[in-house]
Amino acid sequence: MTDRASPRITVDRILHPASVAVFGASDDRSKWAGRIMYYLALHGYAGEVIPINPRRQIVQGKTCYARIADAPHVDVAIIAIPAPLVPATLRECADAGVGCCLIISSGFAEVGPEGAALQREISELSRRTGMRLVGPNCLGLINVLNGMALTSARVLEVERLHRGRIGFVTQSGAIMLSIFNRAHDVGIGFSHLVSVGNQADLDLADFFEHMIDDPATAVICLHVEGLRDGRRFLDLIRRARRAGKPVIALKTGRSELGEHAARSHTASLAGAYPVFEAACRDAGVVLVDDPDVMVLVANMLARFGAPTEGGIALLSPSGGINGIVADRLADANVPLAVLRPETRQSLCEVMLPTHLDNPVDLGARRQELGETNAVAARAVELVAADPGVNAIVIALTTSPNYEATSKALGAAAVASGKPCFTIITPGSVADGVRAVLREIGCPYGDRIDDGVRMLAAYTRYVPTSRVARAPDAKPGRASLLDLRTGYLTEPDAKALLARYGIPVTRERVVRARDEAVAAAEAIGFPVALKAVTDKVVHKSDAGLVELALADPDALGRAWDKIRRRLAILDPPADTLLVQEMVSGGLELILGAKRDPGFGPVVMIGSGGILVELLRDVQLALAPIDPAEAEALLRGVKAWPLLEGYRGRGRLDIPAVASALSRLSRLAVDLGSRLGEIDVNPLIVRTDGHGVVAADARAVIAPETQDQDL
Amino acid sequence: MTDRASPRITVDRILHPASVAVFGASDDRSKWAGRIMYYLALHGYAGEVIPINPRRQIVQGKTCYARIADAPHVDVAIIAIPAPLVPATLRECADAGVGCCLIISSGFAEVGPEGAALQREISELSRRTGMRLVGPNCLGLINVLNGMALTSARVLEVERLHRGRIGFVTQSGAIMLSIFNRAHDVGIGFSHLVSVGNQADLDLADFFEHMIDDPATAVICLHVEGLRDGRRFLDLIRRARRAGKPVIALKTGRSELGEHAARSHTASLAGAYPVFEAACRDAGVVLVDDPDVMVLVANMLARFGAPTEGGIALLSPSGGINGIVADRLADANVPLAVLRPETRQSLCEVMLPTHLDNPVDLGARRQELGETNAVAARAVELVAADPGVNAIVIALTTSPNYEATSKALGAAAVASGKPCFTIITPGSVADGVRAVLREIGCPYGDRIDDGVRMLAAYTRYVPTSRVARAPDAKPGRASLLDLRTGYLTEPDAKALLARYGIPVTRERVVRARDEAVAAAEAIGFPVALKAVTDKVVHKSDAGLVELALADPDALGRAWDKIRRRLAILDPPADTLLVQEMVSGGLELILGAKRDPGFGPVVMIGSGGILVELLRDVQLALAPIDPAEAEALLRGVKAWPLLEGYRGRGRLDIPAVASALSRLSRLAVDLGSRLGEIDVNPLIVRTDGHGVVAADARAVIAPETQDQDL
User: Please, which residues 77-136 of chain B have a Cβ atom closer than 8 Å to chain A?
Assistant: First the structure.
């Protein structure tokens, strides 16, 4: 039995209700509910609109009901009464068989313990009755397709809603409205926009899921503050991927302070960003850092689909602007296309022979052709035809016939069929140009920065990813159930690694000095001698490690020294570890941990001093195969050292990839028992000579029922 | 004798001419010159306007002259005729005693060799006659203070020009116009805006210099493509610094591609950005990467002066927006203020006790006070009073009484007297809000990104710098004149370092095997043995270095080996170097070179493998004193290692600083003979144990007359 009743109404029905009830309905458009009713009429919502107000008979020409119980059947009711009155009204709605209540009211979990109690009360009511809730503390939703704007904001005061194929879900009502307004201004349309607020019942994932299945939505934008259920989110981004729908996500709480702001706002914990980032990267989600860029990227994906391989072609009548944009693109790692010889040849038709490079300075047209727009447009056409050009960017500065010039250039870009974008550098003087570009359907941005950041995100979108192969992340080996819970000492941790075929140092646990000497002779001098203790984490710093012991005498002296230190630091500890000396090679750090939201993750980074200097760590959700491990490894800053830096030999990259892949399998197999595993350092030898885990530790969590995360 | 005639007219007079002649004058405002005349009248230029046109008697109510020779005295003439006709017209102007010609015409150096010849011709004419030129290939200039807009662009089609204290100079006319228009839209005014184009005579530095002395200009914005004379630019940024005028610079050509774009546009070479950056940092110049941000920062500096120590206070009615902005500020290293206990205490007056943190979620006001604007404004006032808050940022989302709310919040911020800025998150729905903010004088931006990048640049401006002390950069030691020109071998380079007190390894140049053994015994085994050659740069890779030779036998074998290799690689070389072994310690790289624009610079960075992995190098203009050297060193990524990383001992930072400062003095003293010097590695030992240059090389340039750069 689940603790959530089956929904009486689907998300699809909530977005396409047959009837909408408006509580507190009014003829006065300066009132909240007056505006809601007005916007429903204005934008042509064809369902039934049912005003609820005990003091009215007719509102905006519609029969008004005193109580919801008197009204005809209601799919969705919208409510913005003071928080303490909400539960009673919801009970009336549930009794009346309302499918879903959309609660604008604030004063719930976001304002402290009292509000949180109120929110628990309505969540419970929803679970018990099956009546769905959106909100509280949201600003409603907008279904552009059926003209149903369930929000009272003035941004709806427009002649018509632009239809589009972009779906947008956010926790923040303010962001929904800002985004809607900005997008409207530049002619970008949506299918649906939803603000989910405190998510007392329906949450971001529920609407996200609907949009994956919704044929009217081609691109999905998510603004995520906290994630309630990382696993479900992960499943959904993978489903979206398999469905071929690009997802663009803006995550708040990337920084500690942003995280704090998210917490105080949504009363939900923001997850750890790097894991979120790794999950998104694996599933091909485009991550952005602000809502303006999110919408611009979504529009490019909806309009032009995925970008192809290649580089940007940048054209402007101003070489000065070209220089600035080219610098910014370089900063953002967005490559400019190198024009092919044939393109340069054909460009000679319209450009001075000294000016055949990308970025293209349209000011350097052949003067004998006249400064006509047709000549400039021809340059755009020729450059766009270069197969190495994957997008055309035009930076429009003021010019005498600004609208006509912009129209000619924009139309040539649009006609090429390639993704195109226009950066408008001046302000209001270009308002006519903006209108022209909207008319011809050429996307634009009002900042150099809009263009650069949009391109950085858009060109990062790749239409294939490892998700297609849907790695199996179910725990395997029952044999791991013998592991003891808690901190594993170095030899135990290494034994666990060795079970998965990860090479570890030859070593032996010993209890007495002569046993140590015998072990060293078996392993071969020189050796290292280490204390075995779960009390001291940094054993070297504590004087519990002696290295490069060349003979039995040195070993004996080291034995005495470590025993003395150990007697102080961990008196019950009675074993030491004799270990082969490994030296040289590159040091990496490998690790695994269980993220509370996303399950097992592995990490790899530079070891030794580099790890803390550079914070040079790459993460991936486990499991990963060796090829994926190698791809991850390429992101580590020490990669050039692995490839063979300045004439030094190539190191054993396949062995590193294998070890990381094996560790990821171990992490999955440990299931909920995975606390964390660190291999530091993993020594990487030259090609063909493998790797060896020189030190390791692990924490094993207690068994829980939750075996499959 | 200088090759430039004394100017007959100053830059000040060019900006404040008594008379302006317009070539090709017309009554038709659709024509270029018709608009120029119209704008001069529209914006109230009070000087004489003199139309020149052989086919007219009267233009726009003014007596028109057929030829410049017939006209009364002209301070500034503006010309936009085809390039090939320009020289003849300029000759007429010079003959008529015109003070300065402003040449809009393009088709000069920016379009290739033919245009370059034309440009040389007019430069020569200017030098010969003393008639000053602005342009060609510019879009004119605007002096807001006397209403003299010498540009034909439609951006002048405004009721009035906003007066301000920001001066702006750029090579690019398009950028001047775009910036003017954007700034006008948000109510930001200028003193002067100048586009200098190809700089055939007057250049960016000339107008920059004028603005430093101009009492009407408080903040100077420069968009720099190529720099003609780095030394003059350096002198000017230092002069501006001493005059207390903030300078904000946008440099094109930071990236290779931007550099390319700049070159093709301005026909002048872009300098190497890192040296430019170091020079600007030293002189307190704020570097930005796009023109929109430049103007926003300039406005903050003109309006509020330099920022004080502290952090940003961020307030918004939307916690969602707060989260996004807080993340972006963290990415940009702009600190948020931590509110003092007293501020939190006083905030309780209006905010819920759970919501007393920065960023402040204005949605969490105490509900019993009502959602009035006065309550929200009180929160702004209380937060602004916190002494740790150095700027107030308000992110305005849509709200029912949007203008009134925005006015209340903005006015409270302005009234606090602290720097303040408003981020407007929606689009056109906020147009009324924009008008309100302009009215109350609260700066605003239309993107989250505008605010974040403005704050990152503004808060980086520090009102003091090392320029105040004006280091003496004149070469000193005549004794360096004995140096031979060309590549210095390791022992010669080290001898040069040693003259300046930079510690080098104990070593001796030897010619025979027994001499080597004697040297090694004097130095003390173990030693290193290296070939002395100027033919092989990477001696280790070539097998010309043997390390850790423990005794005479080992030394003897190494001798034979190196002699054999040397006989192949550099047969004439007949000396080897016996050197003390230095090991352990941290490796840094030190260097000096002569920048063609800015003179001697020094660099310091991580050595060993880190140098190429991280490209971790910090630059400064020489000379620097030890304190400045230490400040530079803090910017090196390896700094934590020097400070004593993870319990390891602190290294000898004063010795590094001393060595770098000494190297900078050597670089200055070498004057034009400085080619480059590399010390790699400099071995840094633990505190008190000094540093030692383990390897070094140098290139000494031939003597030239130019001794003082």
Answer: 106-107, 110-112
